Amino acid sequence: MDSIILNFIQNHFHNGFTDWIFPYITTIGNYGLVWVLIGLCLLVSKKYRRDGLILLAVLAVTHIVGEMAIKPLVARPRPFVTFPGHRLLISPPSGYSFPSGHAASSFAAAFTLWKTNKNFGIPAFILASLIAFSRVFLFVHYPSDILCGAILGVLISYFILVFFKNHEKTTKM
């Protein structure tokens, strides 16, 4: 199924505009930097400091679990390695494919922002979806890498949000 979806996107979604825009969109997600910057901006505001702290914690745990634990364990080669001959629109990323770190950090951040402030959540999910799709479009991830990365990010966010909520309840007693 991965190959079918990957080939469909490669054969039907490329044009002058998408070939220009998706490398920029994927760059926004590099190293989770956009989400880290959002977290730092939230930390500056007293009103949103807690949200920023939670977001940064979610991103750190997502990185540790996805990039440092799961990726080396699964060691799945990227699509451009498995199917050579495709012209890449970005420099070939190093490391393994599964799960997508871009998708994991983006969906972890989007879910966190949505749960802490609905106004931030909708635009965050739109950006997360574009970043995640860009990785398949650019032939550096399989769709299952994206799906599992997104699920991983949401689950980590959920558990950290529960942890913070429980911690706040116990400290108020």
UniProtKB/TrEMBL annotation:
Subcellular localization, as worded in the UniProt entry: Cell membrane
Record keyword 4Fe-4S present: no
UniProt membrane topology term: Multi-pass membrane protein
Major subcellular site: membrane
Residues covered by the Phosphatidic acid phosphatase type 2/haloperoxidase domain: 53-161
Pfam families reported in the protein's UniProt record: PAP2
Domain of life: Bacteria
Name of this protein: Phosphatase PAP2 family protein
Protein source organism: Caproiciproducens galactitolivorans
